[in-house]
Inverse folding.
């Protein structure tokens, strides 16, 4: 991502804010894992979207129209001793020189400087409730400004939910964002293909996870978008199964939901395949149904269609199929109305995808489902889950969990499946696994 793109985003946000306004956007805090060990640091998506800066202990401030500086970045000061132990810091010079800040101050000066900036503004754009420490500081600063108001300064009158503006911007992906997401999806797709080739009975679930992480990182993914889900057999029925500790067994399916991240942009792909390379008949029948639902749902991704049309479509296909297989009894229309499918398909067919795997953006606007528009990216991921011991279900269907998930870009004339490189028909999967 170029410096020019980050600048364009700040300008766009400032245009929306108008004059006499201030936006305050904090970086994510570092988090301790155990004693002196921290979790790998990942910048907050909103903060990174606006700044391209990835150091903790930073706050970005935007004040449109301010003569001295419109974009001020508070960040850590240079400190040769600390930097020798903990790593390099951009410092105030770097914030201005390399990250486009008009001015920069030490993070430790926030308490002193920010109240003075607030005094000049009528509206504060801030995402309340995301950072409890900054929330507390904010109320202290406002208190200070109010106390000073007797000396003639008015201070801010109104809080505005910054996330609303920022998240609407993030929903529409630019050309360079799409390029990054396409690359992330391609790397994840190639890793899924290689997992299919390597998978065999006796492997441990986490060995497939390790292989996925290795393959994507070696090809220059910057990380994983979320912890991989690798569920063999019955474990595939747990939607967010991340223990990944069990052995993969001959005759079971394995469900893998894994996606790498590049420069804070996610991919999110699920595939399900037979551990031994050949679908059993019940597995093939259920898999065929999920695939049919997924293809029908993807076909509904195009500009002008409403957000929930792919989900409605998937539900219709799945309910009819479950009736045909004898897993649901009754009339499809009535079963859909009473959500009978939820016994086997209990999640939605997708979500926005972007910097966050479950990305930001409203799904409804003024109470109506959002209309799909070019530049939006979503997942399409129907599934069926029939854990062992499910009452009223024949044994042959039990212990089967299936999800097929692709990343889909809405284009001018329809859609583009960013993750299309990974095979998903039973025939293609078996051919690949038995090569
Ligand atoms: N990987 C989480 C999801 O598919 O939503
Ligand atoms: Mn997903
Ligand atoms: Mn997923």
């Amino acid at each position: 991502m170029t410096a020019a793109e980050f600048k364009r985003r700040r300008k766009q946000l400032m245009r929306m804010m108008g004059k006499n306004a201030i936006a305050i956007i904090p970086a994510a805090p570092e988090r301790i894992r155990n004693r002196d060990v921290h979790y790998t640091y990942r910048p907050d998506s909103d903060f990174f979207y606006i700044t391209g800066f990835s150091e903790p202990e930073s706050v970005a401030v935007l004040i449109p129209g301010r003569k001295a500086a419109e974009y001020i970045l508070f960040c850590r000061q240079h400190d040769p001793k600390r930097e020798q132990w903990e790593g390099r810091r951009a410092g105030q010079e770097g914030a201005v020189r390399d990250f486009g800040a008009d001015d920069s101050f030490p993070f430790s000066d926030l308490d002193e400087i920010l109240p003075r900036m607030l005094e000049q503004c009528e509206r504060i754009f801030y995402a309340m409730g995301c950072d409890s420490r900054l929330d507390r500081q904010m109320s202290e600063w406002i208190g200070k400004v109010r106390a000073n108001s007797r000396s003639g300064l008015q201070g801010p009158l109104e809080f505005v939910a910054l996330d609303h503006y920022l998240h609407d911007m993030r929903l529409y992906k630019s050309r360079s964002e799409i390029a990054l997401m396409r690359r992330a999806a391609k790397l994840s797709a190639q890793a899924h293909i290689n997992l299919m080739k390597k998978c065999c009975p006796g492997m441990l679930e986490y060995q497939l996870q390790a292989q996925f992480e290795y393959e994507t990182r070696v090809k220059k993914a910057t990380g994983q978008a979320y912890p991989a889900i690798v569920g063999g057999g019955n474990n595939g029925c747990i939607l967010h199964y991340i223990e990944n500790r069990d052995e993969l067994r001959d005759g079971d399916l394995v469900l893998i939901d894994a996606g790498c991240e590049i420069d804070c942009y996610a991919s999110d792909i699920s595939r399900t395949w037979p551990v031994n390379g050949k679908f059993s008949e019940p597995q093939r029948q259920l898999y065929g149904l999920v695939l049919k639902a997924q293809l029908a749902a993807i076909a509904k991704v195009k500009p002008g269609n409403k957000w929930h049309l792919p989900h409605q479509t998937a539900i219709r296909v799945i309910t009819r199929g479950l009736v045909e297989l004898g897993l649901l009894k009754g009339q499809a229309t009535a079963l859909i109305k009473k959500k009978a499918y939820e016994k086997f398909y209990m999640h939605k067919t997708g979500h926005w995808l972007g910097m966050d795997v479950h990305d930001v953006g409203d799904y409804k606007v003024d109470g109506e489902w959002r209309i799909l528009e070019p530049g939006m990216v979503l997942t399409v991921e129907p599934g069926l889950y029939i854990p062992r011991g499910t009452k009223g279900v024949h044994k042959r269907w039990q212990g089967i969990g299936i999800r097929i998930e692709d990343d889909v870009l809405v284009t001018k004339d329809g859609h583009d499946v960013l993750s299309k490189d990974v095979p998903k028909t039973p025939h293609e999967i078996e051919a690949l696994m038995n090569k």
